[in-house]
Design brief:
The chain is an alpha/beta fold. Among the domains are: about 5-170, Nucleotidyltransferase, domain 5 (2-Layer Sandwich), CATH 3.30.420; about 485-670, no CATH class; about 730-960, Rossmann fold, CATH 3.40.50. About 50% of the residues lie in helices and about 15% in strands. It starts with a strand and ends in an 8-residue tail after the last helix. The relative contact order is 0.07. Belongs to the helicase family. DinG subfamily. Type 2 sub-subfamily.
């Protein structure tokens, strides 16, 4: 395989069998690793090119009128393809058009080998975030000047192919051999390519991996850097932090040197000093720091200073793993530049399931599985293992089925052999733990903090000082982790893992290992295993029946959840006294009894086989078997607590996933109030905790947050400080807030009337803003009601409409697509209210459809409301309004992300001006311009505002000599 023809077709559509035609061809011939020839031409399709395709490609009907017909172009193309490999980005799209053209022109179909550069990229670039041609061109630094033009696309694809071929040739032989075997199910002829490279390496005698790689148990891994054991220099006790901080911010300060264009922000300096003072005085601190304050450095610098000066460990916790990664990659280099020779040892620590278990992965490589996603995932991991030092799943872009496969090979406590494991010296999880034990600052996430709390602090090294970022989520994460959740696929998956309907499960492997080991009481073990098979088959049927009954019982009663495609139903024991309820209870009891019986049977098998003399492979299986025993007992206990008992401190509900035909059910048991637990088990155990967020206060008061976190008493005792630091942005100059007055108050009109008026206003504003609009909904049903009608209205204006849960369920995928389109309106639900960062010109308009009140019938909200009412408190004003205000501020913050961002906010919920509590929402916003007018009158104001801000932006760009950095 040394001759490749890279092909790209631009077409009138994507259905060649239904009349869509080729309008442009671009080809690049690669021979012996070099570009040898190029060929491109327009093609007369003898049909109209749709306006959308004209806009996308820039190819108009006039341009192809005198172009050659496809019949004239095929001969030189076929000559090029003779004896070559047909290559394209998404090869089967281009192949379908080629085959159709060949058939219509009377030629035989193309039967040569195919390479899909999407598939090859997924294999060889497993850490890549996206595999579109534009994504790959950017990440590989390949020039791609004219996307959606065949010659430019073919050229970019050719350079991508050359890069991939080079990488493939540099992979070690042992990895190539694994890949060659696994690629049998690949869609394009990558197996043939791998076979060629394998033979070439064998001929050349290239057996050894590179110097930065090592082969262990026939798997090639990247060599690991040793963990530095030295403690590092401590800062002198006498060094004054205020003086140190002032030195950072001066004209000759370190921040100016390591961050070109850095600007002094008094709020950042104030926060930095306040954080250090809180550590020094042993007080807790709550800081609301507006967008642009630079709060990450404002807490990281004093945290590092304190850790080094006092030789203490400081834990920094973020809400998500993505934020952990962002902090580690963005802020760590700055800290290293600031502290120089005193640079801190910072470790990132995640939950155990984020790390690959090499023992499980090695074992799974020996299993033949007829599943494309699993085989691709295994192949990606083999390549990734030659690159990763962490084994962290966040580094790898697995296909959808790969997420399921990951659960089979992830690290977990129940199946860990610890020091007896042949892979222990290279264990990624234990390496992360060792690094954390040597670290001065540990970056983790809220979920792991509570997992650590539940495990009696056996995960995170001991610490007395902590920073909680995105703290407005802290108590919600606590509720989830201090409660319990069990799903139907967890139970079914556990039993399937033990003994699948088809194929080999854990028990089959145990049986085979027992037979091969030839232990004396093999017959007794075999008898126990066969009895377990029967019990597991019964267990599957019983649990399936239980979940079917639960689904039928709850389906009609359940209400729509905030999460797309989910419905929820709160239940109590009294709801299970009907005839149907009693049938559910009976099925649950049967399931609990069977799980206990299966656990007991597995325990007997384990006891019968367990031996200190067992070979290492058997020890691994025994550890997995013991883990399965614990799983059975834990699931039985969970089912019992969730459906057969009840206590007043918890709320119980069923959640149904209705998006697919597979009826997935989640059972939740969550504490109604976690404030006392947080106080007793977290805050009272620490010397100083810093809680920070852009949205922590409600109208400059921390009363709501202190109640949620259990800090009200400590605040009264003066053991907690609070501070609000405003954003440095000039919202009066950067933002215009508009309230379309003709849109009816949803409380006084039908939803149909409201949606009709909403669509009309959104469509007119979207034309004025040329798309670039994010619309935030609180209801997926309402988003669906708007989507099709708005899409139709904006069709003529060539403005694309994307809907969350309609076009894709992935927030990141939709956000990327939105940014790549010139004119687009993105409709988002719950997850879009925060964590979406679209700075600059990509977003000019933010629309808030309704105030983001959590549905009062959500089980946890309902239970908390009832608890407050029993205490003679106003649940609406003390819970619902503060929650909505914090979320409203989060949504509002999506528009202005930098000091140069400008745009328009539309608020369609008239309660902000009609309801008594509505003024609280407008008061919660920074000082800005607010206009209340009909959309008709708002349009010229919006157009004028955007035109003026564009002019101001151009002027500021001309004046600026270097970009501003906000830390």
């Amino acid at each position: 395989m040394n001759t490749f023809v890279v092909v790209d077709f631009e077409t009138t559509g994507n259905r060649p069998k239904e009349g869509d035609k080729i309008i442009q061809i671009g080809t690049v011939l690669i021979r012996n690793g070099k570009i040898a020839e190029r060929f491109s031409t327009l093609v007369n399709p003898q049909t109209e090119i749709p306006p959308f395709i004209e806009n996308l490609t820039g190819i108009t009907n006039d341009m192809v009128v005198h172009a050659p017909m496809i019949e004239e172009v095929l001969p030189p193309l076929l000559k090029m393809l003779d004896g070559a490999v047909f290559v394209a980005h998404n090869v089967f799209f281009d192949l379908a058009f080629l085959q159709n053209a060949l058939q219509e022109a009377g030629y035989h179909p193309f039967t040569g080998p195919l390479i899909d550069t999407v598939e090859l990229s997924r294999l060889l670039l497993p850490r890549q975030e996206g595999y579109r041609l534009s994504d790959l061109s950017v990440s590989l630094d390949i020039m791609h000047e004219h996307p959606h033009q065949a010659d430019s696309d073919a050229e970019a694809t050719a350079h991508i192919l050359l890069h991939l071929l080079e990488k493939l040739r540099n992979l070690p032989l042992v990895t190539i051999q694994h890949l060659q075997r696994l690629s049998r199910l690949f869609h394009s002829d990558i197996q043939m390519l791998l076979s060629d490279i394998e033979h070439q390496k064998v001929r050349e005698g290239t057996y050894e991996p590179g110097t930065d790689l090592e082969v262990i148990h026939q798997i090639c891994l990247k060599k690991r850097k040793a963990i530095k054991q030295e403690s590092g220099r401590s800062l002198e006790q006498a060094i004054d932090f205020d003086g140190f901080a002032d030195g950072l911010f001066g004209e000759q300060g370190l921040l100016k040197k390591c961050m070109p264009g850095f600007e002094l922000r008094p709020a950042q300096v104030a926060m930095m000093k306040q954080v250090y003072e809180s550590f020094a005085s042993g007080r807790h601190l709550m800081v609301e720091a507006g967008t642009g304050t630079g709060k990450s450095l404002a807490y990281l610098i004093p945290a590092v200073f304190w850790a080094k000066q006092q030789e203490e460990v400081v834990v920094v916790s973020t809400h998500t793993i993505q934020l952990q990664e962002q902090m580690y990659t963005r802020d760590l280099p700055i800290l290293q530049a600031i502290f120089g020779d005193d640079a801190p040892r910072i470790s990132i620590l995640k939950g155990r399931n984020n790390y690959l278990c090499l023992r499980k992965f090695s074992h799974s490589l020996q299993e033949e599985q007829d599943n494309y996603d699993i085989q691709l995932s295994k192949s990606q991991m083999l390549v990734w293992l030659t690159e990763t030092e962490t084994g962290d799943v966040e580094e790898i872009s697995l296909p959808s089925g790969g997420q399921v496969y990951w659960k089979q090979v992830q690290s977990d406590a129940g199946s860990c052999l610890n020091r007896q494991c042949p892979w222990f010296s290279r264990c990624y999880y234990h390496h992360a733990r060792r690094k954390a034990q040597q670290a001065e600052v540990i970056v983790t996430n809220h979920s792991l903090l509570f997992t650590d709390m539940n495990s009696e602090h056996r995960i995170v090294p001991s610490y007395k000082y902590a920073v909680i970022d995105e703290a407005h989520h802290f108590d919600d994460v606590a509720s989830r982790h201090l409660g319990d959740t069990i799903s139907s696929y967890q139970l079914e998956g556990m039993l399937h893992h033990l003994h699948p309907d088809r194929g080999v499960g854990l028990l089959e492997e145990v049986e085979e290992a027992v037979r091969a080991w030839s232990i004396a009481d093999y017959e007794e073990s075999k008898h126990l295993i066969e009895a377990a098979y029967q019990q597991i088959r019964e267990g599957k049927e019983t649990i399936r029946e239980m979940y079917n009954l639960l689904y039928q019982w709850s389906h009609q009663r359940a209400k729509e959840s905030e999460e797309i495609g989910h419905t929820v139903l709160r239940y109590k024991q009294e709801h299970l006294t009907s005839r149907w309820g009693r049938a559910v209870v009976s099925a649950v009891r049967n399931s609990v009894d069977l799980l206990l019986a299966i656990g007991k049977r597995l325990e007997a098998i384990y006891a019968n086989i367990q031996s200190d003399d067992a070979p290492i492979g058997m020890k691994g299986l025994l550890t997995d078997l013991n883990g399965a025993v614990q799983d059975c007992l834990e699931y039985a206990e969970l089912l019992h607590h969730m459906l057969l008992t009840e206590d007043e401190e918890h709320v119980y509900w069923i959640e149904l996933d209705t998006r697919t035909t597979r009826k997935t059910i989640y059972l939740h048991r969550v504490p109604i109030d976690v404030s006392s637990t947080l106080r007793e088990r977290f805050f009272n155990k620490k010397e100083s905790v810093i809680l920070t967020s852009a949205t922590l206060s409600v109208n400059s008061s921390f009363a709501y947050a202190t109640e949620r976190f259990g800090l009200a008493d400590l605040l009264a005792e003066n053991k907690v400080s609070t501070i609000v630091l405003s954003s440095p942005f000039n919202y009066k100059q950067q933002m215009l807030v508009c309230i379309p007055s003709e849109v009816p108050n949803i409380k006084g009109s039908s939803e149909e009337q409201f949606i009709r008026a909403l669509i009309d206003s959104l469509a007119r504003v979207a034309v004025a803003t040329k798309g670039r609009m994010l619309v935030l909904f609180t209801s997926y049903a309402m988003l669906r009601g708007v989507y099709e009608h708005l899409k139709e209205r904006l069709k003529e204006a060539n403005i694309t409409v994307l809907g969350h849960g309609v076009d894709s369920g992935s927030r990141s995928k939709l956000t990327k697509q939105f940014r790549s389109l010139e004119a687009c309106v993105l409709l988002g639900t719950s997850s879009f209210w925060e964590g979406v960062d679209i700075p600059g010109d990509d977003l000019s308009c933010l629309a808030i459809v309704r105030l983001p009140f959590v549905p009062p019938n959500h089980p946890l909200v309902e239970a908390r409301n009832q608890q407050l009412e029993q205490q003679n408190k106003n649940a609406f004003m003390q819970l619902s309004v503060p929650q909505a205000l914090i979320r409203f501020k989060q949504g509002f913050g999506r528009l202005v992300r930098t000091g140069t961002d400008r745009g328009v906010v539309l608020i369609y919920d008239r309660r902000v001006i009609d309801a008594r509590y509505g003024r609280l929402f407008l008061q919660s916003l920074p000082e800005t311009n607010v206009i209340v007018k009909p959309t008709e009158d708002l349009l010229p104001e919006i157009s004028d505002w955007l035109a003026r801000t564009k002019s101001a932006e151009r002027n500021s760009k001309e004046e600026a000599t270097e970009p501003k950095q906000w830390g």
